[in-house]
Write a structure and sequence with these properties.
5-stranded antiparallel sheet, 4-stranded antiparallel sheet
């Protein structure tokens, strides 16, 4: 009887060892839903975004919810892994596009808003038949003309990310 119990315990131990190896071997692939913690910093070490502000981030890898280089860095990671990556503008939020700088008349903002350089305004734009709110930075006010920038605030910046993969939920 004692031998049967010992044999059972050995088998359970083997099962647990192989089960944990299988879990450790799970690697992120495009289409997986992941939960990550991250911190993004500019070249001067200023933190510009962090999951510590809102908790871990959950999304589908490859669906375009995060910058391209950010998502590429996750491919092949395993649960619990930490990684640091440096993303140039092309792999992060893109380069500044002068076509996204617009000058509008001050009266577009109505009587309740007094635009000033540095203000970020929520602007409504139509995109493929849908109204979307996007942030726009007031860059200049010259008399009745207001220049606004629709580029992402981090466009043109190199960003360093510290990533920690918390969980993978296979597709």
């Amino acid at each position: 009887m004692l031998q049967i119990i010992l044999l059972s315990l050995e088998l359970v131990g083997l099962q647990n060892r192989y089960a944990s190896k299988d879990n450790a071997m799970k690697k992120v692939q495009a289409g997986d839903h992941v939960i990550i913690e991250y911190e993004g910093m500019l070249e001067d070490d200023v933190i510009v975004e962090s999951s510590s502000d809102n908790g871990p981030c959950e999304f589908e890898v490859g669906a375009g919810f995060m910058p391209p280089g950010f998502e590429k860095a996750l491919i092949g990671m395993v649960e619990g892994e930490e990684k640091s990556v440096i993303l140039p503008p092309a792999e992060a939020f893109g380069y500044k596009d002068n076509k996204l700088l617009h000058t509008v008349r001050r009266d577009v903002f109505g009587k309740n808003i007094e635009p000033k350089p540095g203000m970020v305004l929520g602007m409504s734009l139509e995109n493929e038949g849908k109204n979307e709110k996007i942030p726009a930075l007031v860059t200049a006010v010259n008399g009745e003309d207001v220049t606004i920038d629709f580029n992402h605030p981090l466009a043109g910046k190199t960003i360093s990310y510290k990533l920690t993969l918390k969980a993978i939920n296979k597709k």
